[in-house]
Amino acid sequence: MSQNTGITANQYIHHHLTYWTVGHGFWSLHLDTLLVSLTLGFVFFFSFWMAARKATSGVPGKWQNMVEALVGFVDQQVKETFHGRNKLIAPLALTIFVWVWLMNFMDMLPVDLLPRLAQWLGMPFGANPEHVYLKVVPTNDMNMTFALSLTVFVLTLFFSFRVKGPLGYAKELFTHPFAAHNLFAKLLLALPNLVLNLVETLAKPLSLSLRLFGNMFAGELLFVLIALLPWWVQWPLSFAWTVFHLLIITIQAFLFMMLTIVYLSMAHESHHSH
Known about the structure:
- The chain is mainly alpha-helical.
- It has one domain (2-267).
- It is 72% helix and 1% strand.
- The protein is globular and about 75 Å long.
- The model has no long low-confidence stretch (mean pLDDT 91).
């Protein structure tokens, strides 16, 4: 808390909203985002791999039960939402849901815990604690959320070309949503259709990334503001917000997964003019 460190509220907020950055400008990297996200990705992969390796047809353990329930839940969502045939979709949806949820869950840790630990670890190496930064929630970094959404965007384009073919996809861009029966009307509506489809296509990664980033950034900022309050106000507010925020981080991971499934399902569908 700022009252225990001798810094002002503005300095405290600025410190918690500053990334551990190397490089400058376009080529700068947020090392804290990369470190935490890759670590959580490894935790997800290793823990699920161990569950699959030790799976038994007899009486399963608690971890195997939870993994099987989670896999079954995601698989059911894919079956109900995805209308094509692609073995990649279910594993992709599971990866997105669990990984995004784990990154969101870092917001549940005490707001000063890991940043303060980083400062202590840096002191023996001569680092100034005021210049040691660590943001532990990768999904409140717009670079991370855009990277995730752009990956989904590229997959959507890839499957659109693969399933419909270049000509079929181009035809869809120029003939939907406003279909026409004669050549003159088709030519007249081609440009409006193209504009609308391009706007819709580009809006998908923007909405995916900004929705996740906005919710997680607001959640972290509220935790930081609560930490500035006296302890007798801070503790009950922090507990209440933590309980509510746990629901938010789960919903955000679920929405990211479901929208990914929907977008990939749309990429596998063909529109036919009549």
